[in-house]
Amino acid sequence: MVIFLSENIAKNDLLIYNQIIEKVKGGKVMEENKKEQNVSVAKKEEQKVQNEKAKNIKAESAKVQETNKKPEEDKKFKKVENSTKVEKNQKEKTTKTKKDNKNTNIKNSYIAGIILVILVIIAIIVAISMLQKTPEKSINEMLTSLKAGDIETASKYFNYENLMNISGLTNKDNMDTETQKLFFDRLEWNIKNVNIENDTANVEVEVTNKDFKTIIGNYMQKALRAVFSGNDLSNSQMESYLKEELQSETAPVTTVTKTIQLTKQDDEWKVNESDDFTDLILPGLRETINSLNSINVD
User: pLDDT tens for residues 163-209?
Assistant: First the structure.
């Protein structure tokens, strides 16, 4: 029984011991668990702190990036804005240039139109002037035709045959065309004054031509020498002597100023034939022929 009690005590003690051990073990486990929990909490806190730091760093980084990004965006915006302004200015400049060009074209067209109108008016005036017959124009055309040897045109303004038939000496039928042209090939003139009354015009003209007084005098001397030498002079020989004198480069010239009269007939101004007209374009010829005729009469 004592042994049984001892065994029971021993069992109880063992049980208590085991309980104590279990309790101790349980405390240790709890303590370890608590430590683990504390470590886990600490880790979580540290992780939270790390996350917070990372968050703050990220925020700071984002802020820095945002700060850095803003100047870039501002710069980009300014660049776009400047580009827009340049484009706008260019567009305005182009529009202004087009407008100026348009105004210039309109102005040039206006000026060109005025010039065209002026030219048309001038052309009309010139055409009217050219079509309108005047005493000056008639005299200029007549003397120009004589100098050029255009006898047909010159004959529109006066009777050419009457002019040249002063005597048998200058009868146009006794002279070829070339000889007749030599009478006027050195003709020069200047219209000094014109006075028109209705259909009559008095025109003062200065004419320079060969001195026919000297030419006819030299011609007659040649003819007389031939006659005194016993030669029988033919008309062709006489014309040859006259042609030589007319062609001579030393043939003298003289200037005569006369007032001749023109009459308007069928819108044409024609010269009234007179001694003044003959003496004007053939200076000295009529006087010399009359002197020779008076000698023959005597």
Answer: 888 755 655 556 788 888 999 999 999 999 999 999 999 999 999 99
User: How many Å apart are CA 109 and CA 123, to the nearest integer?
Assistant: 20
The pair of three-digit structure tokens given for residue 80, joined into one six-digit string: 């776009």
Q: DSSP string spanning 86-129?
A: HHHHHHHHHHHHHHHHHHHHHHHHHHHHHHHHHHHHHHHHHHHH
Main-chain dihedrals φ then ψ at residue 128, nearest 5 degrees: -65, -40
Distance CA(214)–CA(220), nearest Å, equals 10
Helix (H, G, I), strand (E, B) or coil at 214: helix
Task: Return the ∠ at Cα 216 (arms to 213 and 219), rounded to 5°.
Answer: 150
The per-residue pLDDT for 113 is 87
Distance CA 244, CA 242 (A): 5
- Cα 33 to Cα 18, 20, 39, 73: the distances in Å are 21, 19, 9, 56
Backbone torsions φ then ψ of 193, nearest 5 degrees: -160, 145
C-alpha 137 chain-centroid distance: 35
How would CATH label the architecture of 133-297?
Answer: Roll (3.10)
- For 79, the token pair is 């660049």
Tell me the pTM. 0.56
Neighbours of 248 (CB within 10 A): 13
